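Hey all, quick one. A colleague (J.T.) asked me to put the 5-O-phosphono-beta-D-ribofuranosylamine job into the tracker so the inputs and the structure tokens live in one place instead of scattered across chat threads. No bug as far as I know, just bookkeeping. Sequence used:
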Amino acid sequence: MLNIVVCVSGGGTNLQAIIDGIEKQIIKNTQIIGVISNNESAYALKRAESAGVAAFCISPRKFESREAFNRAFLEKIDELAPDLIVLAGFLVILPEDLVKKYRKRIINIHPSLIPSFCGKGYYGLKVHREALARGVKITGATVHFVDEGTDTGEIICQKAVEVQRDDTPESLQRRVMEEAEWIILPKAINEIALRKAGKGKEN
Ligand code: GRF
């Protein structure tokens, strides 16, 4: 069994895709042992509750320093002891010691085809605004391992999405989620679970 912790900051539609994927057995041999949000009003926390998953809020605002927050965050992760940490719309820069300790055990979903429209400051609607401004005809989403850089870790899975002539950043964001993110994130987790069970392709 692959034990995962999902980290979220907002709506949690990717978290929902994981919850549904496990229920429908698109993701096999996997359980969510915890959801962590940095934002107490994240709707993702409600999704976790409705699914009967333990949910925790660790907000940087509740700590006197970034270091104290980082420590509390790492402690919670260590306490949960996951096989895999999934960043699903998590808008917090991870503490470096966590990245080191959990190397190749943290994945992130990014709403573009890396290396396009990624890196510092590229999150949310900005990614899609920039893709439209550049006039690309194809965009998509990427699941990658997390390293010390921003969106620089090894790519696990990508899926392309066509840009339509009348797209707005909002319509493109939605289509990238529906046609790419909600498909490749469950797929990547399933592949990692299969590999753990010794049935996946070698990597
Ligand atoms: C998604 O676009 C994801 O790629 C990005 O943040 C957004 C999160 O959406 N990293 P949600 O909270 O999963 O609905």
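Adding what we noticed when we looked at it: Residues 89 and 199 are 29 Å apart (CA to CA). The chain has one domain: 2-202.
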